[in-house]
Amino acid sequence: MLCIIGCGNPTRSDDGVGVYVAQQLQAQLPAQTRVRVYDTGTNGMEVMFKARGARRLILIDAANSGSTPGALFEVPGTEFQAPAAPHYSQHSFRWEDALSAGRTLFGAEFAQQTTVYLIEAETLAFGLNLSPPVQAAAQRLIERLLAEIAATPLP
């Protein structure tokens, strides 16, 4: 099974791009058992549990690296191998922590192949809309993921 998870805060403009992509995919994909799409917002713990049982995991979130707004980065999940640092609050447990903790807790039941898509934000100010370059990048990613899903044979 493929699991796609959109992360972010939709009340902080471009930070909600992962949530937006997940919601658009949920609306466009017919109900099926081979692809599950979730909007986990900022709940890293939920990411860990939703990814359990998936063979492949795709995470989508905003980036704030100083690159050109709307730039799309594809990062192999192996880049996020470091063990999660101890946290004293669940609010500090992010998706990066979920990848490490999920591998440790669930072993072979946790997605073994992970890809992270990051879209460079233009603004993280309070707001409900994506900026034009981030909206365009999100649409390109949605089309790319839909094409990939359509080209993948049923198990």
Explain the overall architecture:
The protein is globular, with a radius of gyration of 15 Å. It is α/β, with parallel strands linked by helices and 155 residues long. The chain has helices spanning 17-28, 44-51, 95-106, 132-151; strands spanning 2-7, 35-41, 56-63, 72-76, 113-120. The chain is built from four helices and five strands. Strands 2-1-3-5-4 form a five-stranded mixed β-sheet, with helices on both faces. Helix 2 (44-51) crosses helix 3. It has a single domain, classed as 3-Layer(aba) Sandwich (Rossmann fold). The model has no long low-confidence stretch (mean pLDDT 91). The longest helix has 20 residues, at 132-151. The termini are close together.
Largest beta sheet: strand ordering: 2-1-3-5-4
How many domains in all? 1
**What Rg do the Cα atoms give?**
15 Å
Poorly predicted runs: none
Biggest sheet features: 5 strands, mixed
CATH class descriptor name: Alpha Beta
Shape: globular
Strand content: 15-25%
What structural class do you assign from the helix and strand content? alpha/beta
Mean pLDDT: 91
What would CATH call the homologous superfamily? HybD-like
Q: How widely separated are the two ends?
A: 8 Å
Number of helices: 4
CATH domain topology: Rossmann fold
